[in-house]
C-alpha cells in the first residue's frame, strides 16, 4: 500500500468508498476489504450506512488504531449545535469513540463555514475527531475553511476521474500540503469501458480500472476511494502498486479531459 504524507502523517492512498452500499451487503463488503488489507474507509451521514460500517468495525480483527476512518457532516446539519448533535449520533452508529477524519460534505450557502469549523475544532479538542477537512469545495472555499480553522484542513474530497479536470484544485492542494481525495474515480464505470485506458492497461497486464487508479495515486497528494462492493473488485482495485505508469501514458490519460500535463508534470511528481 502506498501512503500519502500530509501534515507529517501518513494516510493510505487507496481507500474503500461506501456510497450506495446498504444493509448486510455493506457490512460484508467492509469486512472483506479489511481482510484484503484496506485500511482507509470512507462514509458519510448522507450515505445512511454508518451503522452497518460500525457493525463491521465491531466484528473485524483489525485493530481500530490501524484503520483510517472518515465520515462527513451532511449539509442540513452544518450549524454549530447541529454538528455536535449529529456527530454524536454518527459515533454511536460507527461504534467508535473517534473518527480519524471529519469532513464538511458540501459547502453551505446558509451557514458560515467558520461556524461549522468552530464545532469541528471543538470535537478535535475533545479527541472525538483527529483531523478535519472539506468536500466539494472550490479553491476559494477551501481557503476560507483554512482561514477559519485553528487546525489544518488536511483534505478536499472531490469528484476526480480521467474525464474531469481538477488541475487548479490539485495545484492548490500540493502547494498547501493538502490531500485531494478522489471520489467516483472510475467515473461510475465509464473508465472501465474506455478504449484508451484499456489499451494502456494491456501494456502493463492491468485492467482499465487499475490503470485509472494508478494514474490517480501516482499523482502527488492524491488518494482515491473507489466503491467496491464485491471481493473481486476490491482485490482488483488494491493490486495497483506493483507497476508504474510512464509519463507518456500519464499524459495520454490527462488528455482525456484536456488537462495540460506539461504544466502539472513537476507538481504531480513525474519528472
Concise structural overview:
With 271 residues, the chain is of the alpha/beta class. The protein is 41% helix and 17% strand. It has helices at residues 23-36, 50-59, 80-94, 113-125, 139-148, 167-175, 195-204, 208-217, 231-238, 247-254, 261-264, and strands at 3-6, 9-12, 16-17, 40-42, 68-73, 99-104, 129-135, 153-159, 179-183, 222-224.
Low-confidence stretches: none
CATH overall fold name of the domain at 9-188 and 220-228: TIM Barrel
Question: CATH superfamily of the domain at 9-188 and 220-228, please?
Answer: NADP-dependent oxidoreductase domain
**Rg estimate, integer Å:** 18 Å
Secondary structure category: alpha/beta
Shape: globular
What is the strand tally?
10
Cα separation of the termini: 22 Å
CATH top level class name of the domain at 9-188 and 220-228: Alpha Beta
- Which CATH-level-2 architecture of the domain at 9-188 and 220-228? Alpha-Beta Barrel
Main sheet overview: 8 strands, parallel
**How would you write the strand order of the largest sheet?**
3-4-5-6-7-8-9-10
Amino acid at each position: 500500500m502506498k501512503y500519502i504524507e500530509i501534515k507529517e502523517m501518513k494516510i493510505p492512498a487507496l481507500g474503500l468508498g461506501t456510497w450506495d452500499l446498504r444493509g448486510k451487503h455493506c457490512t460484508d463488503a467492509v469486512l472483506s476489504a479489511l481482510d484484503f488489507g484496506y485500511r482507509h474507509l470512507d462514509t458519510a451521514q448522507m450515505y445512511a450506512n454508518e451503522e452497518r460500517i460500525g457493525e463491521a468495525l465491531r466484528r473485524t480483527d483489525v485493530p481500530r488504531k490501524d484503520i483510517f476512518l472518515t465520515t462527513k457532516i451532511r449539509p442540513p446539519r452544518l450549524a454549530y449545535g447541529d454538528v455536535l448533535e449529529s456527530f454524536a449520533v454518527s459515533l454511536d452508529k460507527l461504534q467508535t469513540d473517534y473518527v480519524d477524519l471529519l469532513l464538511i460534505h458540501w459547502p453551505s450557502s446558509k451557514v458560515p463555514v467558520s461556524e461549522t469549523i468552530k464545532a469541528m475544532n471543538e470535537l478535535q479538542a475533545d479527541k472525538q475527531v483527529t483531523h478535519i477537512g472539506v468536500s466539494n469545495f472550490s479553491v476559494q472555499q477551501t481557503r476560507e475553511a483554512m482561514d477559519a480553522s485553528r487546525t489544518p484542513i488536511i483534505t478536499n474530497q472531490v469528484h476526480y476521474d480521467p474525464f474531469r479536470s481538477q488541475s487548479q484544485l490539485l495545484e492548490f492542494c500540493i502547494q498547501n500540503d493538502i490531500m485531494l481525495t478522489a471520489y467516483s474515480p472510475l467515473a461510475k464505470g465509464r473508465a472501465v469501458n474506455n478504449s484508451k485506458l484499456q489499451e494502456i492497461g494491456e501494456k502493463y497486464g492491468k485492467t482499465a480500472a487499475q490503470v485509472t487508479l494508478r494514474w490517480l495515486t501516482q499523482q502527488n497528494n492524491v488518494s482515491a476511494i473507489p466503491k467496491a462492493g464485491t471481493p473481486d473488485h476490491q482485490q482488483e482495485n488494491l493490486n495497483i502498486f506493483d507497476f508504474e505508469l510512464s509519463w507518456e501514458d500519464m499524459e495520454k490519460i490527462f488528455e482525456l479531459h484536456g488537462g495540460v500535463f506539461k504544466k502539472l508534470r513537476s507538481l504531480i511528481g513525474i519528472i
